[in-house]
Fold this sequence. Notes:
Blueprint: H1 3-26, E1 33-38, H2 46-61, E2 66-71, H3 82-88, E3 93-97, H4 98-101, H5 121-129, H6 131-144, E4 146-147, E5 153-162, E6 177-180, H7 184-192, E7 196-199, H8 205-211, E8 216-219, H9 221-227, E9 236-252, H10 253-257, H11 261-295, E10 299-301, H12 305-325, H13 330-343
Parallel strand pairs: 1-2, 1-3, 6-7, 6-8, 9-10
Antiparallel strand pairs: 3-9, 4-9, 5-8, 5-9
Amino acid sequence: MTDFTAYGRGLTRLALTATIALASLTGFAAAETKYRISVDTGANHIRNITLRVFMERLATATDNELVGELFEAGQLYTARDEPKAVAQGDIEMSVTTNSSIAAFVSNMNLLDLPLFSGRSPEQVNQLVDGELGAALATNIESKLGLVVPGRWFLLGFTNTFGAGRTMTSFADFKGARIRVFGGAAFIERYKALGAEGVAIPFADVPMALSQGTIDALLTTNETLRSAKLFETGVNSVFVDQVSVLYYVPLVNKAFWDGLSDDHQKAFKEAWESVIDDERIEALRRQDAAAEENAANGVVIYTPNPTELAEVNARMLALAPEIAAQLGVDAEIMALAQSEIAKLN
């Protein structure tokens, strides 16, 4: 357990004790407990929309004893800083990309490896909802001293979007600077294709695009649409289906331990209640976003199937080397390969 986790737990317990004491002094049967959620996407993003539904359902289930406040668009933290902020108790919760968590939990790099390139979201859902996802969640909890209260939000396929450079084929990757959202495995992937992957917080992407400091970026249609990045230079999408992106719920352990058994149960049930609808809506919005982006000038380029298969095979062959370089445990790698084999 890290020192900052223990420190955060102490502060959160003190705050909860004070809240309960105040309630007893004022004669209320139960005190309102507030929790903060930090995300770096804007109000119209599927993650934000679903989180508001979750907060409403949890408040209703607890007679407004658990009340959430959503801080959006990186107002408090960038995605790469959210896991540490939750562990320290600076915020009670975040719902963070698997790639951002990988900076703290090396096994999470697994999901960014070419093992998953081209897999359908439905297939990867099976993996993250099953034994593999459970092992990764346990790893997150043990490494960061956090609670992962349930299944993960789906965002969808990530693709390579061109800005200063129109991305029409893998040949256009050579020499390009491509923004990634923190995943070291993506940086290695682009390096193998002759490009330079650079990690840039999402809040800084519009400026990087307008200043021409990046040629392209790895993201999804929904994220591009919700941030209107077609207004800051994105002009094309190369549908290389690099990975399926998820948002993992992270809850401060001291906050969680301070909740009653009933409130923990209500929290998990409210969370579970939004997952299936979120995943369906995420895929629908990705399709709708692709159409909207195209209407706003983002030209769609689909790789030649033979070339795509060749690139994916070459990347797949590099996966064990990249996994070892990024510190992915051999046991986790073997479990992933075993579970993927069951899908075929």
